[in-house]
Amino acid sequence: ALITYKSSTGTGGLKKHLLSCEKYSSLNAAQPTITTYYKKTKSAVPEKIKEEINNAYLEFVALDGNSFNTVSRTGFKQLIETVFKAGQSTADLQSFEVCDFLPHPTTVSRKVDRVYAFRKKQLIEWCNTLDSYVVVVDMWTEKYTGIHFCGASLRSLDSDFHLHLFSLGCKPYTLANQTAPNIRKFVDDLLADYNLSLNPNSFIVSDNEPKMLAALRGVNRVGCSDHYLNKILEHSFTAPKSDCIQVIQVFDIVKTLVANFRRSHRQDVFNIAYNELIDIFCGSHYHDFESIDKDLLQKICEFLQPFDETITILSDESQPTLHKVIPLRKFLIEHCVPKQEDLPGIKKLKQFLKKEIIDQWPIQNEHLLATLLHPRLRDFSGDQVLKHEAIQLLQSTIAIYTNSTNNNSSISNISSSSVSNICSSSSSISNICSSSSSISNTSSSSISYPSSSSSSISNTSTSSSSISNTSTSSSSISYTSSSSSSTTYASSSSPVDNFVTTKKSNVLSLCYDKPRTLKPVHDEVSLWLQTDFDMDIIHDDLLLFWRNKKDAFPNIAKIARKVLAIPAANTSVERQFSCSKIIIGDRRTRLGAEKLDKLIFLQKNLLPLKIMFDSKTVLTNELKRKADDIHEEDEDNNCTSKKLKFNEEYESLSDDYESEREN
């Protein structure tokens, strides 16, 4: 039965339902009955103590203005656990005042400096062991204080394909202006602080603003895919040149109404929404609401859903994401193909977005290699041009490793300048054919590549560069039947058509290859292309896959360890900025920029560095503060039965405040 819920009656509507149930007191003989139940787990904490804690926490939230979810945060739990242990250890001793346990704010501030210096030393020690890494940078301005910040994070895959992500800080930008030479100098100085540099074995990911492009010219830079996509969407809803007049009008009205609604402080759930709209939207806002084309707005929301999911997928920090750029880019291009039943406004929006994605979202060499290194994306959704280009990039890079006598040979030779020299023979294939970049592989639209980037692909399209499935070039791999075994992306039953209804499948899973048959093996690249790995990759965990296959494909694994560490977006730094904004707040505007940098460093790196360096059996004493050396070792590591068992690395608090109290 369907029971109407009303705020005035609450759950009173169930009374009628209960009365009707009494008429059917006799149970059907076939009706299954529940005979066993889960036992209620009773809390070990007495109810009286738990109620006192709840009241104390309520006062903690109300009196100090803290958020309700403070209790669920890791740092707060550790604090409570430490205080609880302190209470147990001092239970048999003389009574203590609470203030005797709590440090002074000045002591905490100085402790931050000491812990930061200690953990930074550990991070520098780890950085000295890296042979390849990826730096992610971005710029941010705090509006309230007007301070400019430059954030940076570091990513690297170790020899066992474990991903490590650390923050290099959120540094206040101290140079005179944000010209390209100054930005480059600031980034170089920031990296030099950790004994790092933008060398041939490193990559850097940034947004695609002109100042960043100019500042990072000449290095292995990979553009942020989320930034490309966000800018494309922004232009479609704001730029007059997009010719999406109906969509822009709806967007402007909705934007105004949402802003008014958020300021009205009336965000309750409506019982009868339409009748209460007059109380929410008054005057011109109500007329604006009435003027919205509801059907068009609904279609816009449904159309933008794949874009939202794509941005979420590419923003993942826990797994490699660079290999997802090409298949998701092609998925969105196909998603933007106008259909006959589309509304006129949606058709114009699709046409504009399709053109902008092709022209303004370039494919770089690193994207090609990363896609080829995924066992379920090697066929590039049937795009043989991109597949052949990726194979040649992989071959040329392996040749560099093979011919080099130095194990630290640079992967930067995969850039377009090096690849063009290796693949300049008459049998080399131009990157793009007009037909290959279209959704149905027959369109005249071509994929756009950046012409000035050092790692971009040349955008020449000639009739002589069309690909034959049986290439006669000595440097290319023969893949005669790859077209038959590849997945044709545009088919009669397009996965995009069923996007909204197919909720169990991830967007990326729609781009996977079909199973392939084994062929005679000639070399490592051929073996990689012809082997079926459908049973080897679990839950799309690419790092686990390469951890298991690094011995079977040693040369390709070296490339995978460098390329797969590159993220598709610079989200890690943007999240640092979000944390910085929360830490600053309106109540902490006097917090120094340098102290903010240290707090962000500890927030992002403290737990990973503890896991990496801190031993479970041997406690370090490097933070023991003495007159001349705050890292002087202390041999007394044993705790008596009455001594508090705090983490001894942070055991010694500053004595400054204690001396102040005595005076």
What does the oligomeric state look like here?
A: single chain
Poorly predicted runs: 405-412, 414-504, 616-663
Structural class: mainly alpha
Structure annotation, total helices: 23
- Number of structural units classed as domains: 3
| Major sheet: arrangement of strands | 3-2-1-4-5
**Average pLDDT level:** 75
Cα-atom radius of gyration:
30 Å
| Coarse shape | globular
Strand content: 5-15%
Total DSSP E strands: 5
- Indicate the percent of residues in helices: 40-55%
How far do the termini sit from each other? 75 Å
SSE arrangement, N to C = HHHHEEEHEHEHHHHHHHHHHHHHHHHH
Write structural notes for this entry:
The chain has 663 residues and is mainly α. It has three domains: 47-91, no CATH class; 107-224 and 570-613, Nucleotidyltransferase, domain 5, CATH 3.30.420; 227-421 and 430-464 and 480-563, no CATH class. The protein has helices at 14-22, 47-64, 74-89, 105-127, 180-192, 210-215, 225-238, 245-263, 273-280, 284-291, 294-314, 325-335, 344-360, 365-372, 384-403, 416-422, 482-485, 524-530, 542-549, 554-563, 571-584, 593-613, 656-662, and strands spanning 133-141, 148-157, 163-172, 202-206, 221-223. A five-stranded mixed β-sheet has the order 3-2-1-4-5, with helices on both faces. A hairpin with a 6-residue loop joins strand 1 (133-141) and strand 2 (148-157). The longest helix is centred in the first third of the chain and has 23 residues, at 105-127. The protein is globular. Mean pLDDT is 75; it is low at 405-412, 414-504 and 616-663.
